[in-house]
TrEMBL record:
Tree of life domain: Eukaryota
Residues annotated as signal peptide: none
Biased composition, class Pro residues, residue ranges: 216-226
Chain ranges passing through the membrane: none
Protein name: Putative adenosine-deaminase domain-containing protein
GO biological process, one term: tRNA wobble adenosine to inosine editing
Organism field: Eutypa lata (strain UCR-EL1) (Grapevine dieback disease fungus)
InterPro entries per UniProt: A_deamin, Tad1
Gene Ontology molecular function: RNA binding; tRNA-specific adenosine-37 deaminase activity
Low complexity composition-biased segments: 125-144
SMART domains membership: ADEAMc (SM00552)
Length: 531
């Protein structure tokens, strides 16, 4: 008798993969007796035979201050909260899988990705590439009339050579509730005084002294955008930034609740991965029962009218969840994930570590300089990312071991091709911050470079690509690597994100931010680098 895959099985698999990491990747007990804790997240694939594969996992809970973004140059992670880093590691896994398929010839298959057929690949203006047309130019640099003409076709591009297999489901496990709107009730319950904070009223716009329609003498100053972190916790449904200490440098990195809500529309794929793989969505988000608030999760993620902030997408968006509409909007749809709970606790969760620290009954040496005075626990500064090894043979199954549980859990075998790293402050542990040699495998620069390599392999005919696939690969390579305004005339990262092929993705993001995630402020400053 086959037993259905449960949240406990998914959580257990991610935790087992984490347990297999070296001790140096784990939270420690400090010399002063303080016990460290850390959030854990992981992406799990469920095959058609109900086998489970952990494809990526991550720990971490910090982000880069906005003022440091211009120094990052694609080398430093912006956000290493566990949920976001696990998704970036998953993108690295996908690109490695694409690379293996491109290298392996027609016999190479993947249990997770498939090659798309010529009939599936939609590129309405690809013929312009053979006639010298502006195939992948930055749409924003066009004239207004050109932009209007571009908009008629930009939203139709859907010629990624690969797609996530339809019979393989994706689940995400998180050991803590996502920061932001989904956890506001939990935040309120944890307060000594849960009385609503007074919400400041924004200053009124100045009233013009004249009815003259003439423009002002100078530009009107734009106020600096702000987003609440944990503050004003009675303000529900709002877009929030990452929570931090009051004395921490400001950031515009959005909360995990907001980013996960957006992923229901844009999929789990980053911009560069989106050029190679058709949108892939989560089926379920698994949270510990102790970290689940039904009202908060419904409000943060649901499109049910009267319950969720995504409800406005039902009536106000110009794209829909129908198959026909998806075909002309780059494959993007609204895919709400189900939020499910597990009774399993992660051994390094805040709750489990607090329990162990209390049971240890050790003398704590307080330190007034690191914020641990009077505490027995503290958050770990270390972030860890891991991905499973990509497909490495022409068989349909990756190298793995299988448990005796029902259903069996397929655990990826650790090989030299599996990736594992620890970062501090968004940079590889032991490397100087902002040094290119310290770039994470999930950084912007590394993911872009790997995507460009895959596109080049496809152009050269790797993997037995069809003519349609090769034609699409030429478009993709041009988008990733064409001459641009960067140093040495290389295309800059910001130009890649603004290319025509990513117009469907940009449109969906704009729609969601306008209709459902109002108040979203872009975290800009790290787009001006080249490979």
């Amino acid at each position: 008798m086959t037993v259905a895959v449960t949240p406990d099985l998914i959580a257990s698999l991610v935790q087992k993969e984490y347990d297999a990491l070296p001790a140096k990747r784990k939270p420690a007990v400090r010399d002063n007796g303080i016990h460290e804790w850390v959030p854990l997240s992981g992406i799990v694939a469920q095959g058609k035979d109900d086998r489970l594969y952990c494809l990526s996992l991550a720990t971490g809970m910090k982000c880069l201050p906005s003022s440091k973004l211009p120094q990052a140059q694609g080398n430093v992670l912006h956000d290493w909260h566990a949920e976001i880093l696990a998704i970036r590691a998953f993108n690295r896994f996908l690109l490695e899988e694409c690379r293996q398929l491109a290298l392996g010839g027609p016999s190479m298959t993947s249990p997770f990705l498939r090659r798309r057929t010529a009939e599936e690949m939609i590129s309405p203006s690809s013929d312009r590439s053979s006639s010298g047309g502006r195939d992948c130019e930055n749409v924003n640099n066009s004239s207004s009339s050109e932009r209007e003409r571009e908009s008629e076709t930009c939203n139709y591009w859907h010629a990624q050579p690969f797609a996530w297999r339809e019979d393989v489901a994706l689940h995400m496990y998180c050991s803590e509730a996502p920061c932001g709107d989904a956890s506001m009730e939990l935040t309120m319950a944890a307060q000594t005084d849960a009385s609503p904070w007074e919400i400041p009223i924004p200053p009124a716009s100045p009233v013009p002294l004249s009815s003259s329609s003439s423009p002002p003498a100078g530009p009107t100053p734009t106020p600096t955008p702000t987003l609440p972190g944990r503050a004003y916790f009675s303000l529900l449904g709002a877009v929030r930034r990452k929570p931090s200490r009051g004395d921490a440098p400001p950031t515009l990195s959005k909360s995990c609740s907001d980013k996960l809500a957006l992923k229901q529309c844009t999929s789990l794929l980053s911009s560069t991965t989106s050029l190679l793989v058709s949108p892939a969505y989560l089926r379920a988000l698994i949270l510990p029962a102790a970290q689940y608030d039904e009202v908060g999760c419904r409000r943060a993620f649901s499109d049910v009218v009267g319950e969720g902030r995504m409800a406005s997408l039902k009536t106000n968006r110009t794209w829909s969840s129908t198959t026909t509409a998806a075909a002309i909007t780059g494959g993007y749809e609204f895919h709400p994930f189900e939020v499910r709970t597990t009774d399993l606790e992660f051994k390094f969760s805040r709750r489990e570590v607090a329990r162990r620290a209390a049971a240890a009954a050790t003398t704590i040496t307080t330190n007034t300089t690191d914020g641990t005075k009077g505490k027995t626990t503290a958050a770990s500064n270390l972030a860890v990312a891991w991905t499973a090894a990509p497909t490495s043979s022409s068989t349909s199954s990756p190298s793995s071991t299988t448990t005796t549980t029902t259903p069996p859990i397929r655990i990826a075998t650790r090989t030299a091709k599996a990736l594992e790293e620890a970062t501090l402050g968004g940079t590889l542990q032991g490397r100087r911050k902002f040094d290119a040699r310290g770039a994470s495998f999930a950084s912007r620069r590394r993911l872009w470079g790997l995507a460009a390599e895959v596109a080049r392999l496809l152009v050269l005919g790797g993997g037995g690509a069809s003519s349609s696939s090769t034609s699409a690969a030429v478009e993709i390579e041009r988008a990733l690597m064409s001459v641009g305004a960067g140093a040495g005339n290389g295309r800059m990262y910001g130009e890649v994100k603004q290319c025509r092929l990513l117009a469907p993705r940009r449109r969906i993001k704009e729609d969601v931010r306008r209709e459902a995630l109002r108040g979203w402020v872009r975290n800009e400053g790290d787009d001006g680098f080249s490979l």
